[in-house]
Amino acid sequence: MQRKEAILLAATEHFGRYGFRGASLRDIARDAGVSLTLLNHHFGSKASLLSAAVDSHRRLLDERTSALSAVQHAGPGSWGVHELVQAWVRSAAANAATAEGRRFLQLVTRISEDTSHEFDPDVQTRVDAPARAFVEALQRCRPEASRRAAESACLWLRGAVSRFLLGAQRLSEPHVEDGVAVDIDQDDETRLVSFLAAGIEAALDAPTTAHAAGVIDAQESALAE
Q1: Which of 1, 47, 204, 218 could serve as 119's disulfide partner, Cβ 3.0–4.6 Å?
Q2: How many domains does the chain contain in total?
């Protein structure tokens, strides 16, 4: 393995486990088997290293976005929330079945939740590209739903799928079926997709009550004073 590849592998592991602030360049260099001086020579800074680690998984990010695009190519009326959720779950489960994919999912989850604002915002934009694609697709099949509702639904989806695939109590362990690594049984996938799709449909159907709108207005007025 080349030194830069070893550094990116260790960086993905540490950023995914500890987040941007918690990851240590010294520890990354140690696990990559290089000196801190060499790491700094190749990447210059912690923020640059994170950006490079995300870029090293560009293919997996693009594949998740492409999976959502493929669903929509079926044509109007032939796909909906269920198909979008299924594409998301299958893409994530395929990632979680391999060591590289699991590191990628953990990195995406950590960076998406990072509130430190200590790294280039473009990194967050790249990581969130599949989520934006999901929100836009959701609005195409449910144009009556607000953007806020679609974004909230995407947050629930991402959190639930990460919990089921990466959490301590996972749905299933990675295994091989017909020579292909998989991370979720077919029955578990069916139940998970049905559960999430039904929840998203219900959330998109839920109206914004006059009471809730009044509370928000009151809060905004109080903040303005």
Answers
A1: 47
A2: 2
Whole-angstrom distance, CA of residue 140 vs CA of residue 134: 10
pLDDT tens for the chain, 225 residues long, are: 699 999 999 999 999 999 999 999 999 999 999 999 999 999 989 999 999 999 999 999 999 999 999 999 877 778 999 999 999 999 998 888 888 899 999 999 999 888 877 888 899 999 999 999 999 999 999 999 999 999 999 999 999 998 888 876 555 555 555 454 455 678 888 989 999 999 999 989 877 655 444 544 544 454 444
Tell me how far apart the alpha carbons of residues 98 and 222 are, in angstroms, rounded to a whole number: 50
- Both structure tokens of 105: 């999912």
- Report residue 160 as tokens: 């639930």
Exposure pattern of 168-198 as b/e (b: 16+ CB <10 Å)? eeebbebeeeeeeebbbbeebbeebbeebbe
Task: Provide the residue type at 174 as one letter.
Answer: P
The answer to whether residues 99 and 184 belong to one domain is yes
92 inside domain = yes
Q: What are the backbone angles phi and psi of residue 44, rounded to the nearest 5°? A: 80, -45
Q: What angle do CA 123, 17, 57 make, to 5 degrees?
A: 40
Which amino acid, residue 126? Answer: R
CATH code for the domain of 90: 1.10.357
How far apart (Å, rounded) are the C-alpha atoms in residues 24 and 46? 9
Same domain for 67 and 29: no
